[in-house]
Amino acid sequence: MATKAEILDFIKIFGDKMAEHRQELTDLDQVIGDGDHGINMNRGFNAVGEKLPTLADKSITEILKTVGMTLVSTVGGAAGPLYGTAFMRAGESAKSKEALSDQDVILAFDEGVGGIKFRGKAVQGEKTILDSMIPAIDAIKKSIREGKPMTVALDEAEKAAWEGVAYTKTIIATKGRASYLGERSIGHQDPGATSMAYLFQAAKEAAQKSGK
Ligand code: ADP
Ligand code: MG
Question: What's the burial of 50, exposed, middle or buried (CB within 10 Å: 0-12/13-18/19+)?
Answer without folding.
Answer: exposed
